[in-house]
Amino acid sequence: MNEIRVMHLISGGDTGGAKTHVINLLNGLNGKIFTVLVTLMESDFTEEAKKLKLPLEILNQKSRFDLGILKNIDELILEKKINVIHVHGARANFISTFIKKRHSSIPIVTTIHSDYLLDDYRGGKLISFVFRKINAYSLKKMDNYICVSNRFKEMMISRGFGSDKSVFSVYNGLDFEKGIIIQRNKNEFLNDYGIEINEDLTYVGIMGRLDAVKNHAFFIDVANEIIQKNKNFRFLIAGVGILKKDLQKQVKNYGIEEYIFFLDFIPRPYEFYNAIDINTLTSYSESFPYAMLEGARMKKPIVTSNVGGVELVVKNSETGFIVDDFNLEEFSNRIIELSLDKDMLQKSGEEIYKIVKNNFSMEKFIQKHIEIYNEILED
Fold first, then answer.
1. Which CATH class is domain 186-359?
2. From CA 124, how far away is CA 122, in angstroms rounded?
């Protein structure tokens, strides 16, 4: 069996689930196989990697199309005796097409964190359109793909990216041995954001960057639908993004400002999940969302759109509800149903916790990656 020596290449500007995925992966692999994390910029991402003492190399790329860094990457490949290159995200995918020309014998694998046809990029619709095209071209040049759900694996194969032998699926996992950081209890958290504290209220939350693919506009539609029927709800939106002003305008147009709160970036996400009663996900596309897993760890049932691998965790009436086709009335009614049945709310929280803990551990997540690297090297 070949020694595994992997270079992980990522822009470093990543946030949300992709950031959590890569940090967890590197932290889990560290000490088991040889890995080095290479980023193209300094950021919060690299600061977190430093705190975890991950093997890290930072290359300060001047722009997305600055190819001067290829020389540095060449040197690292030779110095570290790299035999697998694992890339994450559109910018790293693009850079890897040039690496492939210079190191054709080294297999390159990319993780598919999202549907590349729906990815949002800073700069507006035109920029997103151009970068989606570039990313699609770059993806065609890959040797192997790791998809964060079977649904994404099927999607990639159906679009002509590889075969069952070169496209793998690995579901995200959580480290249940790692402690949860909560510095503010529920009341302290709500108070800090000026949210009314009342045991008769139901707190409904959504966490994710404020980009079109996350479909927060639908979440606000749902909130308005519920508020017209029952005022005993408060809706919490955690995340930052380019659509914040548009979403705030939507809330204002509905006249429901006193019921919806924009919390921006939450540095300790478990404080958010501890404060809410019902978790939600309204995305058009997801792989296997950490927002669902982290909420589950805090025993919060979820009402979600039918995306990614959510069906492996969300069992209707047992751990929450999956709503198809963004049915506004059904989505709203499911939240109300959970809020009115406290016994269901508690049991659903307990059950979703058990499913995630028993089936989506960090140990399985890491071991599956090692198996894939071995298979790639054997091929």
1. alpha beta
2. 6
